[in-house]
Amino acid sequence: MNIWSFDFAWAFLALPPILYCLYACKIIPQKRYFPHLQFFGNPSKWRNLEWLLKALAVTLMVGALATPVVVDFSDPRNRNGIDIVLSLDASGSMNASGFGSDESRATRFEIVQKIASDFVMKRREDNVGVVVFGDFAFIATPVTYEKEIIAEMIGYLSHGMAGQNTAIGEGVAQAVRALKDSKAKSKVIILLTDGEHNSGAISPKEAVAMAQKAKIKLYTIGIGEKGEFDSKLLAQMARDGGGEYFSATNEKELKAVYDQIDTLERSRIKSAEHTFFEHYFQYAVAGALLIVLWLGWRRRVKG
Question: What is the pTM of this model?
Fold first, then answer.
């Protein structure tokens, strides 16, 4: 999305008085007497055109002073946000129902898909990626700013696609790998699980150490009833990872957790040094200069 604006829009305040003076402040020419007026055409039309050209030249010069600029917000260089990876548990236990409202028969994983997709779409200034883990972990979507694609890909995921067990360490380690090429100043992993670590070649402690080394903040979320997930492990991982630990027993609480993380990890407002834009004042100056040169040339030819 491109947005036109002016760095110094207040400069246009000078335009009305200048145009008025150009119209009302008449230059009194030196009187000359010539008997053969028939050799001259009617100058009124030319004078009107000359005034319009002068007014256009003045407008262009004031416009150049106002400094027109176009900001391209679709350009990734304008994204001064956070790089986030959602690491989602897709083990067999995520097929359990009863996590939503009383009328809902949706599984835990289906509810997580919906809430995670909503979270992704809110992060307009950020790059987001998704990791799925079960017996093993894999990167479902790389870290990117294409939110619509990420949300759509989350909808294609399913529980059990990475195995039936819960490799929490692998889930964090793979998320660290997804962020290895990140140039963002702030990098975050949000790990969600409903079980205990019982699979994988990498332990949670080793995975957290990897995140610490890469300067990645780690948030952990445990979902389900008390005792279904290892709350002590998740809390310790979040402490060591510089983030926070959350738990949710139902859909409403999980949505509130993601909303809270969304508030905690807000992107800073873009500053000028992080904004990619193009100035166009040179075109206004060039247009005004051409008009002035043409008017001068015409007067010289007439003189």
Answer: 0.65
91 and 109 fall within a common domain: yes
Cα–Cα distance, 158 to 91 (Å, whole number): 9
- Residue 84, H or E segment: strand 83-89
Whole-angstrom distance, CA of residue 282 vs CA of residue 272:
20
Contacts with 62 (C-beta within 8 Å, 6 or more apart), sequence order: 11, 12, 14, 15, 18
Contact 187, 219 (CB under 8 A): no
Does pLDDT of 64 surpass 50? yes
* Averaged pLDDT of the chain: 83
Does residue 270 belong to any structural domain of this protein? no
The identity of residue 160, as a single letter, is: G
Among 173, 172, 165, CA closest to 94: 165
Q: Are 92 and 231 part of one and the same domain?
A: yes
Residue 40: give the domain boundaries: 2-73+276-302
Q: For residue 90, what is the domain's CATH number?
A: 3.40.50.410
157, 140 contact by CB (below 8 A): yes
Give me the number of domains the chain comprises. Answer: 2
Helix ranges (H only) for the chain are 15-24, 44-66, 108-122, 147-156, 168-178, 204-213, 231-240, 251-264, 281-302
Q: What is the pLDDT of residues 122-174, one digit of tens each?
A: 887 789 999 999 999 999 999 998 889 999 999 999 989 999 999 999 999 99
